[in-house]
Design goal:
Shape: globular
CATH topology: Multidrug-efflux Transporter 1 Regulator Bmrr, Chain A
Number of domains: 1
Helix content: 10-25%
Radius of gyration: 15 Å
Number of strands: 8
CATH class: Alpha Beta
Order of helices and strands: EHEHEEEHEEE
CATH superfamily: Regulatory factor, effector binding domain
Distance between the termini: 20 Å
Strand content: 35-45%
Structural class: alpha+beta
Largest sheet: 8 strands, antiparallel
Number of helices: 3
């Protein structure tokens, strides 16, 4: 198992699942003087640990950009500690993530795991790569610990 820390540039906000993510992405970009080209494949959203523990899946708690080595730190830089993450990929967008979270919760319940931090959710394939919605792919990662 690898235990690698990752730097994120994070903006906390309550974002509805139904909301278009373009506006929060632009706010993050403007607030931190970022070049939007750097966002390709590195933007994600998260649900707070508290909401995961309570199984409240109606909104995201933050939007973030993964920083690469050499990227400058900014006001909202956050270091995500390495650890154990349950990971699931599904066909669809962030708006269709709820069934995937439920499937992950069922697995966690069977194994005696509980969320240990905010989820990470990435669009791996979306409109930036294809116009075919059947090919959209999203990945969810939930840090966990054993009860």
């Amino acid at each position: 198992m690898f235990n690698i820390d990752v730097r994120l540039l994070r903006h906390y906000d309550k974002i509805s699942f139904a909301e278009d993510l373009e506006q929060p992405i632009r706010e993050l970009e403007l607030r931190n003087s970022l070049n939007s080209v750097m966002f390709l494949g590195k933007v994600g959203v998260s649900i707070s640990c508290e909401n995961l523990l309570n199984r409240n899946l109606d909104r995201f708690s933050s939007i973030f950009v993964v920083l690469e080595p050499g990227d400058d730190d900014a006001e909202d830089t956050f270091c995500l500690p390495g650890g154990r993450y349950l990971t699931l990929r599904f066909h669809g967008t962030h708006k269709k993530a709820e069934p995937a979270y439920i499937k992950m919760f069922q697995y966690m319940d069977q194994k005696g795991y509980v969320p240990a931090g905010d989820s990470l959710e990435f669009a791996l394939i979306d409109y930036g790569l294809t116009n075919d919605p059947s090919k959209f792919t999203t990945e969810i990662q939930i840090p966990y610990q054993t009860i």
